[in-house]
Design brief:
Length: about 190
Amino acid sequence: MFKLIIFIFCLLSFSVESKILFFGDSLTYVIGNAYKKHNNDTDVIYNVGFSFISNHEYMFNYIDNSNLNKYDKLFIVFGTNDFIHSGDIDNYSVLSILFVSRILHHNKNIEITWILPPTVKNDRKNELIQHTKTAIKKGMKPIGIRTVDPDTVFGGDYREKVDNKAIRTADGVHITNYGANLIVDLIQGI
């Protein structure tokens, strides 16, 4: 009987999945739902057209009024709608640090990964997105938060396809299910 109890305990210990939260702009929807195929215990909270720089107070309030203690991992997906200039890098970086600090205040054990915005079809916006990526990385590195760049699997320049399969939608911004699966493979590999 004792061996049976030990066996059941071990089985349950290895089968428990982490509770995951994907939190961010419209890209969050497709990436989070692709991740959900690998872990059903995944919540996806997103806001279409969300700009972290313009709407950060809403997100801070959301964090303050949520139960983050139930999550083991958090994937932040902000930045695609934030087209900042080089002079705004420091301010955006500080804002991102404050946001992550607020999250850690509510759950000091949560593992956070910030998924950076991918390149988009518009060259001028890509220049500004590069500033956003720089700001996020500048803020996250000193506090030990991992960043993941979708361009690692998409390529540094805007592409509509990888391996002859569409990774981007016709609008030049959003990601297809195949593109989301590539990002999920990337974040699961870290």
